[in-house]
Amino acid sequence: MPLQSKVDRGQIQFFTLDEMVDSDSVVRVIDLFCKCIDYEKLGFIVKGKSHEGKPAFEAQTLTAIYIYGYLNKIRSCRSLEKACKVNAELWWLTGMQKPGYKTIANFRKDNSEAFKNLFNAFTRFCKELELYGKTTIAIDGSKFRAQNSKKNNYNLKKINQHLDYIAKQKEDYLSSLDRNDETESKLTNLESRKQKYESLKADLEQSGETQISTTDPDARALPLHMSIVEVAYNLQSAVDDKHNLIVDFDITNKNDFSALAPVSKLAKKSLELSADEKLTVLADKGYYSGKQIAECHQHNMDTLVSPKSKGSKSKDPRVSKAKFTYNKETDSYTCPKGVTLHRQGKVYNRKDGIPFKRYVGHWSDCKNCPWVDICVSKGSRDASRGRMLNRNIYEDHMDKNDAEVAARKNEYKRRQAIVEHPFGTIKRQWGYNHTLLKGLKKVKGEFSIILLCYNLKRVMTILGMDGLKEALKASKSMYVAIRAMIRCHANNIKIHFYNQQLCNIEMAK
What is the rounded (10 degree) CA torsion for 123, 124, 126, 129? Predict the structure, then answer.
């Protein structure tokens, strides 16, 4: 079998940049998309207005570089600089422009909010194409490693351990002091380390936080799974069930417990749903918070959040809280033996600040019960009090949520398939399990690019490459028409729109 022949490297070739790029290449979609953007309106820093200094690169060019890079697993600014020099598709996309790594890096760093606005703009574009179902969303969080090692993350316990160790080391050195320079330098080093940790302790106490990170001040140690902890950021995403497209997202340095209502309201706003329109929210048990569920209900959102087990595990199952019946009309509980627990007038607060009501049975009713030893605690028996139960003030909303989950099991089972799809693509397929930037604001900007690329990739799959091109061309036509309308309005020119895409301009008589 003969071998394939090579082209002579010295042979002169005549071809255009356009011939070097396939007609169905993703760069053609990126180019159309980037031409539809009003960069100044979205908050991008637009250069090139001054006639002094070296000519600047267009915001369109740098945005296109980042979208192409993140779609092709190229994230670092140095790798993007190299790709602009050797990648034929980027030659076509940028018109043979080759910005340096510093220019590329500064564009991402300085336009964090603008990239979030761009993500929102693409969401609106998808809504116009009716790619969102607008009835059900799933919410979940995923941890992404920060640019801060666990060694450079401290809490009060860790700082005190370092200080105790230094004090012990110092005491050992002093007890065996030989009056030589080596020992003196060790003592100086220990004193310097002591000052460092005392300063960290003072900063931690002043901030009111439980942790402090020295490399990335916004990063926090968060549990990944089981007992594994990583210094990371938590990506909270809301995903629509129709095509697994991300509706909106937020970046936090906290766990999921307090994120249900904020992310749900953010998603409802992004979907442009009115207060009267319902939205169903699916979430796992990490979001099970009475306060958050109640807030969702107040904003006309049905919650299907997996409930946690209720009641004390130390109690016998026969007398657990689940066996007690709550009477809403009398605001009281009835035990399995028929004893009524009446509400005390005071509202108490748990250590986490959540208020609750307390219900107590009369000792005269409880003392002769055959289950008194397993139902009433020893402290209550000694104080001649009956059984006590606590009820979260949000428990009505929690009961409503639990009933919805039980009645709509098949709907809840879809949660994982909806919301885990983006995380699987981003983390496993693309390998983006960490952030390159530091600080909440910049990290949010980077994830705006990542999630924009995910949605863009999804729409390519849903509509096909040609379908998305046609939609972008139509969108661009509308954009040009609207801009023309704004310009012509001052000149008394009349504009007619046809099919919401094309416009015809006539001189007004």
Answer: 170
Could you tell me the two tokens for 381?
A: 């028996």
Q: Look up residue 445 and give its two tokens.
A: 């900007």
Across all residues in the chain, what is the average pLDDT? 88
Residues 6+ away with beta carbon under 8 Å from 422 = 237, 239, 244, 246, 451, 454
How far is the C-alpha of 447 from the C-alpha of 65, rounded, in Å?
16
Q: Are strands 246-252 and 153-155 parallel, antiparallel or unpaired?
A: unpaired
Spatial distance between the Cα atoms of 65 and 82, rounded to a whole number of angstroms:
12
Report the C-alpha gap between 150 and 154 in whole angstroms. Answer: 8
Measured distance CA(412)–CA(138) in Å, rounded:
9
Per DSSP, the residues of 142-175 read EEEE-SS-GGGEEEHHHHHHHHHHHHHHHHHHHH
416-439: pLDDT as tens digits: 999 999 999 999 999 999 999 999
Helix (H, G, I), strand (E, B), or coil: what is residue 440?
A: helix
Q: Which amino acid is at 298?
A: Q
DSSP class per residue in 78-116: HHHHHHHHH-HHHHHHHTS----HHHHHHHHHHTHHHHH
Provide the strand spans (E) within 170-278.
211-213, 220-225, 228-240, 246-252
139-169 tens-digit pLDDT? 999 999 999 999 999 999 999 999 999 998 8
Asked if pLDDT for residue 304 goes beyond 70, the answer is yes
Q: Which residue has the tokens 């949605």?
A: 455
Contact 398, 297 (CB under 8 A): no
Q: What is this structure's pTM?
A: 0.86
With contact defined as beta carbons under 8 Å apart, do 245 and 455 qualify?
A: yes
pLDDT-derived band at 508 (thresholds 50, 70, 90) equals very low
Sheet containing 340-349: order of strands: 325-327, 332-334, 340-349, 355-361, 388-392
**In sequence order, which ranges of 308-436 are alpha helices (DSSP H)?**
363-366, 372-375, 378-382, 395-407, 409-413, 415-423
